[in-house]
Amino acid sequence: MRNITRVGVDLAKNLIQVHAVDAAGKVVTNRALKREKFLVWCADLPAGCLVAMEACTGAHHWCRQLRERGFDARMIPAQFVAPYRIQGKSGKNDANDAAAVCEAASRPHMNFVPHKTLDQQGNEYAMVDSTIVWAHHRGGTRIRRATARDAAGLNPPGKDKARTGRARHFNHCSHQ
User: Fold this and answer.
1) How would you list the strands of the sheet with 15-22, edge to edge?
2) 29, 117, 137, 139: which has the fewest C-beta neighbours closer than 10 Å?
3) Residues paired with residue 143 on neighbouring β-strands, in sequence order
4) Within 10 A of 1 (CB to CB), how many other CB atoms are there?
5) Which tops the pLDDT comparison, 41 or 120?
6) Strand ranges (E), 13-87
């Protein structure tokens, strides 16, 4: 584990897939870990090791955890990871995604996403929360997004979306 220089991580609901390589780019390990075992596994990595993952809301949490432990944790936007995914018989799976993240992180001009503090994330969710409405759909309940004005039916007369399409559905659902 001490010869690992870069780790690509694919975050999932129950498992975290890790793809680790050495300085020469040779695969050292590619395995799935339970979420609660991920930080324990990372404890054996050398200090300052680059740990990269696709940017998502959960990735900010893991970046904070890894940075507190002295790792170089970074997030990559999904559109910059996609070109490195191995297509073929196996297709898209967690192992291929982790390998793609690891490969993308090795690129010298990669654009990384800055990590957010817990306060920054909390403020964002407070703003987003006011724009989420629940919509009942044939298959069950789904979350749909609309502006707060659409959801409340407050668009000005010239811009009235409440009579057509999705906005009508939001108005109907928000007043039940």
Assistant:
1) 27-34, 15-22, 4-11, 50-54, 72-76
2) 139
3) 134
4) 13
5) 41
6) 15-22, 27-34, 50-54, 72-76
Measured from the Cβ of residue 95, the count of other Cβ atoms closer than 10 Å reads 17
The helix/strand/coil state of 162 is coil
Query: Residue 84: which residues within 8 A CB-CB, separation 6 or more?
Result: 99, 100, 101, 103, 104
Q: What are phi and psi of 156, to 5 degrees?
A: -65, 155
For residue 51, the SS3 value is: strand
β-bridge mates for residue 137, sequence order: 140
β-pair partners for 76: 54
Phi, psi of 165 (to 5 degrees): 55, -140
All residues at 6 or more sequence positions from 4 whose CB lies less than 8 Å from its CB, including other chains: 20, 21, 22, 28, 29, 45, 46, 49
All domains of the chain in start order, with CATH: 4-115 (3.30.420.140), 130-174 (no CATH)
What tens digit of pLDDT does each residue of 42-69 get?
A: 999 998 999 999 998 889 999 999 999 9
Q: How are beta strands 4-11 and 132-137 bridged, if at all? A: unpaired
Q: Cβ of 59: how many Cβ atoms within 10 Å? A: 21
